[in-house]
Amino acid sequence: MRSIISFVIFCILSFPNFVNAENSGNKWSFYTGMFDFSDDGKKSNLFGIQHINEDLYRETSFGTLQPVTGAFITADNAKYIYTGFQIPKKNGSFTFTPSFTPGLYDEGDGKDLGHAIEFKTEIQISFEISDQSEIGLSYNHISNASLGDKNPGANSYMFNFIKVY
């Protein structure tokens, strides 16, 4: 567990060295929280990273669609890699962001969600602490939409640090 935490801290601190500063349309979200907090037997700490490309977007009747791609790992070695979209709604210093991201899930030693293909729906509220960074809180639900023989789903919450690079 300490090695995972050390790795996440290392990535956050060293990440600016790997990103081209000329591309200002990139946001990165680093997050940690509790995977499947509503299942006492299978809840587990999680750590993740997500890329938000603000240069690629589409205006729709719902708002501005932005592509997102990310991954997380739990302390039980469950992994989820995903890509999809989000629709941020800014109001002053606050941003409300719903998202939908299909992805691939591997249970590791964690919870069996019933299928390799899972769908994550999420809501996030974030607060702008500078013009280059935000802090936020998010909640998501992961489900396989009954693709598998079972569909227990997982509910998670996360604390987010979002940075423009």
Summarize the structure in short:
The protein is mainly beta.
Description:
This protein has an 8-stranded antiparallel barrel. The chain is globular. The longest helix has 13 residues, at 2-14. It has one helix at 2-14; strands spanning 26-35, 44-53, 58-60, 63-74, 79-86, 89-91, 94-106, 117-130, 133-143, 154-164. It has a single domain, classed as Porin (Beta Barrel). By secondary structure, the chain is mainly beta. Residues 10-23 have low confidence and may be disordered. A hairpin with a 4-residue loop joins β4 and β5. The chain contains 1 helix and 10 strands.
Can you name the CATH architecture? Beta Barrel
* Principal-axes shape call: globular
Strand order of the largest sheet: 1-2-4-5-7-8-9-10
Stated plainly, the CATH topology is called Porin
Distance between the termini: 28 Å
- The number of helical runs is 1
Cα-atom Rg, whole angstroms? Answer: 16 Å
Mean pLDDT: 88
Entry keywords:
165 residues, Porin, mainly beta, 8% helix
